[in-house]
Amino acid sequence: MHVPPQAADARAKTGIPVLDERLRGGFPRPSTLLLFSDKPTEKRLFGENFAVQGVKAGDTSLYVDFFRAPQLARGELKRFGTIDPSKLVFVDATSSQLLLPSQEKYRISDIGSLTNIREAIVSAIEATAPSRIIVDSMEFLMDRFDKDDVLRLWHELIEAARANRAVICFLFINWTLLEEDLAQIRSMSDFVVEFQSSVRGGIVRNSMRISEMAENGIRTNWIPYAFKDLIGLTVYFPRILVTGPFNAGKSTVVRALAEKAISIDRMGTTVAFDYGNVNITGIEAEIFGTPGQERFEFIFKIFAREVSGVLLVIDATRPEELPRAKQMLDLVGPRIPYVVLANKSDLVGALSTEDIAHRMGLPSDVPVIPTVATESKGVRDALLLLAEMIIGVR
Fold it and tell me: Do domains 11-229 and 236-391 have the same CATH topology?
């Protein structure tokens, strides 16, 4: 008996759960993504990750690469782990540049002709029916052809992708275009994913933000990200601060979140810091716990620099410590997202989350999560809430 093929998923996942949830399951099919920056960044990683996630989901991804030979690109994509090679199709746009024969089924034979470029890509789309298309990169064409002709090709490729219900991604670094031209490109896009890189302490850190072009569409904050072998992109927070008054359970929270945690103790009391690394739902974070006593406040101030967010741990049975907890929040600063952990909430006499919020005068949008850190209850939920607040998806 003939079994009809299953309908393709209406959403194209990024592979980062916290983003896919905010995108209501991923980017809608069809749609157009502009992966944009005005300086060289690691946005190619996003395009590669997006292509590989499609293959891992059982769909076909089409990759048009104007800068790398297909065999080189395939080698680099092995960093993402084993995938079905038949599901990752390349349009060879480099062999003709080097005057070399191509072994690829789909290739651009005349790189000096926009007509030939369009025909090669559109033919590959129609023949392979991909769910995802990555064009890497459009500045290659902008550097070589008339701007209006390239914009016309851009629009034609969008139409070809829409006819096949695919998500098409255009990588683009703007070297020369005026703002009115960029506005036109953005208007052709359903989502703009912007990228930026910065250097802090000699370490390059990459971040992105996603904007939906529709009115009242999705907007995120700048999201730090990193690459992990065999997995792909992960949201990465280099510093989450776990703080709170003395004996609130900060070290226990760090140990509950991290598979491996380091603590510097003296006579049962943390005297320097706790450290751990955690990975939940595609989010990686480095967590630092600080002593709660006022005499260690200098350590707190050191670790409070450039934090991404704060987990404020309080002992829900000790209301007299709430002013100290509020003071520690003031030391961090007003613009840092934070979640309050009402720890030891299982004990007799523990304050309710509502009572804690009232006594501390917390804004209505600050979550107060009941936790039992010794049993790992509630702490991961608190970290996930904090991550959503940091990246602007909550």
Answer: yes
